[in-house]
Amino acid sequence: MPKGYWIAQVDIRDPERYKDYVAAAKPAFEKYGAKFIARGGAYERLEGRVRARNVIIEFPSLAAAVECYNSPEYQIAAAIRHEVADAEMVVVEGL
User: Fold this and answer.
1) Can you give the pLDDT of all 95 residues of the chain as single tens digits?
2) Cα 54 from chain centre
3) What are phi and psi of 53, to 5 degrees?
4) Phi-psi region at 81: left, alpha or beta (left = phi > 0; alpha = psi -120 to 50)
5) Domains and their CATH numbers in the chain
């Protein structure tokens, strides 16, 4: 079964409160088997619009990735993130 991936580009407006998002998201990530592939770090823009933080999270399947996002656990964290950051996020199926 192909894995699922969250790909997110994020601009953090309030770094201190963003820590609350990270803490709140942890239970959902643990429940759905998330593995961080990239989390911030150096990047180089090649084309198009970019944000300051790039994140790639691997899940056991596309379904698990979508279920994690829609879970009550993650939606608590997402509410915090919406207050403190701007982001684009997609879920993609791996090969």
Assistant:
1) 999 999 999 999 999 999 999 999 999 999 999 999 999 999 999 999 999 999 999 999 999 999 999 999 999 999 999 999 999 999 999 99
2) 9
3) -125, 130
4) alpha
5) 4-42+51-93 (3.30.70.100)
41 vs 73: CA distance, rounded Å = 26
Q: List CB contacts of 25: < 8 A, sequence separation 6 or more.
A: 74, 77, 81
Torsion of CA 35, 78, 69, 58, to 10 degrees: -20
**DSSP H helix total and E strand total for the chain:** 3, 4
Closest of 11, 17, 10, 18 to residue 57, by C-alpha: 10
